[in-house]
Design goal:
Shape of chain B: elongated
Strand order of the largest sheet of chain A: 5-6-7-3-8-9
Shape of chain A: globular
Oligomer: heterodimer
Mean pLDDT of chain A: 88
Mean pLDDT of chain B: 89
Strand content of chain B: under 5%
CATH class of the largest domain in chain A: Alpha Beta
CATH superfamily of the largest domain in chain A: P-loop containing nucleotide triphosphate hydrolases
Radius of gyration of chain B: 24 Å
Number of helices of chain A: 8
Chain lengths: 261, 288
């Protein structure tokens, strides 16, 4: 890889101890993500894609192997505000306005009042939510709420954006729109994005690389470079190149399953 | 109007049942009087008499209303015969008890949510405390406080009232402070938020709807606690004292008017909390 690695995972193992035995959520996961890459993680439930993202974010501690973010431990990287995390649900606080929600991390991190206002305006513009500052979350549609939560993750200018199925709960039309927007945002900001998804077209449309994972134990079965150009109109999804990559992912997913169950 | 109508319908039904019950409850006395006087008693006479006795077993609603008018409107509020005076005595202790109970309830909830030890030790005792009859505890509290040199009745009554009031607040606040899901907690973690920040910015605001719901129960419980605190303690002022004195002197009108006054007071207090609740939640953006 030509770029410097921002996220490095080496022989990562993670075993959860539960009431009825242990579950191996990750086994021997090795992966490097370079600066400015858009890497999607795809696989069936239980394949460890979310767990991997959580390990990178320092929300889970691996039981074996090593993970480095910007050359430091995930905990240190978190304290350096290296990443923003977008969850499956928007999870906006109902008692805060949209601006208030976006301001939340800034308040916690102790930004000045004027800088908070500047940043809130800027990121809300970025996700096309200007004018909704004083609305409360329930007054917005699901797609708009998720955009607000992306703005919240962007507010403190982290270089890495970790997104855990952020559009999973949205209908397809809204999803298409947000995919386009996210791609544009990535292009503008040059952030490194780790993106967990269930959807093959979404993975192919968005990413520079697709990591195919498979369950029991959670592991990487294929890593696919995406040769599509950075500029991607929505109808690129009907081109033969696009379908070819989708085909390869589908095959990878099926192969992972054949000895999974 | 749509909200008032069902309430009025229930009120009308209660009054109807009450009037019907007055006849059999008081008929004994009327019949005995008529026999002693050797009079023939027609049914309308019987009914009329049961509605208009001086010391009925069950006073009729209009008698209670007349008594209320006499003791609330026609008596100076500074007079010891005024129900407003006694209501004010009860209200003071209720509000002190409510404040104390709320503070204690919230404080205990915070420690229970944040400390495993407190969770294991405090919670069972909080539950046990509510299984002990308050009438049994009330005299002890008064004796203990008197030994400690606390004068007057306001403080002991407030403590008894807080004893009943803190529990619903505690239970709701524990639930409210724990209401943020794992995702919300993880989100705060990704910001490296301190425990204090997570409390002030997430747990506390998330618990506000729970708090107000429990305050409505709590203020009613505080009133009940105060009245019970006035019963076994020889108090001579307050709505509870009126009930006790009415009982001792065989004056059911006094008992019933004090009961109705207490019910109205409870209704007013709960309504005030409900108004505050809707204002607060609206301000916080919960309302739709």
């Amino acid at each position: 890889m030509s770029q410097a690695a921002v996220i490095e995972a080496r022989n990562l193992d993670l075993t959860f101890e539960t009431g009825d035995g242990s579950i191996q959520a990750l086994r021997d996961v090795t992966l490097e993500i370079g600066k400015g890459e858009f890497v999607s993680f795809i696989g069936p439930s239980g394949c460890g894609k979310t767990t991997f993202l959580r390990v990178v974010a320092g929300l889970e501690t691996p039981t074996g192997g090593e993970v480095r973010v910007n050359g430091t431990s995930p905990d240190e990287a978190r304290r350096d505000r290296a990443y923003g995390y977008v969850f499956q649900e928007a999870g906006l606080y109902p008692w805060r306005t949209i601006a208030g929600n976006v301001r939340l991390p800034l308040e916690i991190m102790g930004y000045s009042r004027s800088e908070m206002a500047d940043r809130v305006n800027r990121v809300l513009e970025l996700v096309e939510l200007s004018g909704f500052e004083n609305k409360h979350p329930w007054q917005l549609s699901g797609g708009m709420q998720q955009r607000a939560s992306i703005a919240r993750a962007l507010a403190f200018d982290a270089d890495i954006l970790l997104m855990d199925e952020p559009f999973g709960a949205l209908d397809e039309i809204v999803r298409d729109h947000l995919n386009e927007q996210l791609l544009r945002l990535w292009d503008h900001t040059g952030k490194t994005i780790g993106f967990v998804t269930h959807s093959i077209p979404e993975a192919v449309y968005l990413s520079t690389r697709v990591v195919v994972m498979s369950p029991r134990p959670g592991r990487i079965t294929d890593i696919i470079d995406n040769p599509l150009p950075r500029e991607r109109p929505l109808d690129i999804r009907d081109t033969p190149e696009f379908l070819e990559i989708a085909q390869r992912i589908r095959k990878g997913l099926r192969a992972g399953h054949s000895y999974g169950d | 109007m749509n909200r008032i109508l069902p309430v009025l319908a229930v009120l009308a039904a209660i009054l109807a049942i009450w009037y019907v019950a007055v006849v059999p409850m008081n008929a004994g006395w009327t019949v005995a009087q008529a026999e002693r006087a050797g009079q023939e008693l027609t049914f309308p006479d019987l009914v009329a008499d049961t509605m208009d006795q001086d010391r009925p077993r069950l006073p009729a609603p209009h008698q209670v209303a007349a008594e209320l008018k006499k003791t609330v409107l026609d008596t100076k509020v500074t007079s010891k015969r005024s129900l407003v005076f006694h209501g004010w005595i009860t209200l003071q202790s209720t509000l002190w008890g409510f404040a104390l109970g709320t503070v204690v309830g919230i404080g205990m909830a915070v420690s229970i949510v944040y400390s495993r030890t407190a969770n294991m030790s405090l919670m069972p005792w909080a539950i046990i405390s509510q299984t002990i009859p308050i009438v049994a505890i009330a005299p002890m509290i008064i004796v203990v406080l008197a030994t400690l040199g606390v004068e007057g009745r306001t403080v002991p009554k407030a403590i008894i009232s807080a004893y009943l009031c803190f529990f619903p607040v505690l239970v709701s606040m524990v639930k409210g402070l724990r209401s943020p899901g794992p995702m919300q907690i993880d989100l705060m973690k990704t910001y490296s938020a301190s425990a204090g920040q997570t409390f002030w910015k997430l747990r506390l605001p998330a618990s506000v709807p729970y708090l107000f719901t429990s305050l409505k129960v709590g203020i009613a419980a505080a009133l009940v606690g105060t009245i019970v605190g006035e019963l076994p303690t020889g108090a001579i002022q307050g709505l509870g004292a009126r009930i006790l004195i009415g009982d001792q002197f065989g004056n059911p009108l006094m008992i019933w008017s004090a009961l109705i006054a207490a019910a109205c007071l409870a209704g007013a207090l709960v309504s005030i909390v409900a108004v505050l609740q809707s204002l607060a939640l609206q301000r916080m953006g919960y309302a739709r």
